[in-house]
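Mods, move this if it's the wrong board.
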Amino acid sequence: MGIRDLRDLTMDDLMACKMTAQEAGPTAMRLKEVLEGADALPLPQLWRLVSKHVLHPDLPFPLHVKLYKAAYAGWDGEAQGPPPSWVPDPDAMRDTNIARFMQEWKGSELWRRLRTGDPTQDWPLLQQISFEDPESFWPAVLQRLRIRFHSVPSRVLARHADPDQVSWFPGARLNVAECALAGRDPDRPAVVWAEEGTPTELHTLSLGALAQRAQHVADALRAAGFQPGTPIAVDMVLTVDALVIYLGCVLAGCVVVSIADSFSAEEIASRLRISAARAVFTQDAVLRAGRRLPLYERVAAAGAPRAVVLPARAGDAVRGRLRPGDETWAAFLARAPAPGAAAPLRGVPSPPDAPTNILFSSGTTGDP
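Not the wrong board. Structure tokens:
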């Protein structure tokens, strides 16, 4: 099985994969060399060896398929699922977050008794423990992710006969944006981006600066009268300002309503209505391929609630006249003082099941 089927391949088999004799000969020799000493390898590692050291993109795809099927001859698909077409290098696997977690986690008695120390072998056991013994598994994961609770949960999982009544982390209160931004090196780069039209000119924002700017948005939202739980739409290009706004909304306990900048006024209106958004962050225009495409105009035509309007290019002034009640990005930020570098994050804590984002897919509601 597997290695025997690979060794049994003939020149005719290889040439049937749209190879010439000049291509098939060296490939057959290379395959023979690679299979030396590979008899004891598990089938996924055998395929990894062949795919890495025999195959390359210039060889015909039918050859890739034939060697894949030969390497996995005897694989029990019903019991093991589809055979993996990509298998990471063992050294790369040991360098992953999950492998490091398995190496460091003291775990339950079952974990200590059955683990082998090989992450490829221990992964199924870890997955089993994660759902059979969540009380031992998840606290270690949360600690590694640096999740900070304002109120610590009474337990990990409160089970119930009715699946709708199951409760994760009952009694807990946290702010997930605060968890993402706090407790890490503030000088570490958090965002690297280029402005439209200057793709080779890179800009960097540190984690500390990102946290400061997000807190400023959260403070300005509170100053503008928005309460935790309020849906706030964001209809923008994915810029660093959009990220700051997203995190600021979550810090303030609000619910982000994601709307694509490509939508028509009718599509924007539908999403605003379904989500009951109370405000919207948007841009005066979208810069794309040298063109200036109006966006605020579409948002206004959608009958949007009060809007905060950013310039298409950071540092520019907002172009055009705004509706009564709408305001520029600069005016919005002026509602609250910018926090200092040493100021702590002040995220609004919420239960773990509180929404942070309202998303739309093609089949969510049928409307739109």
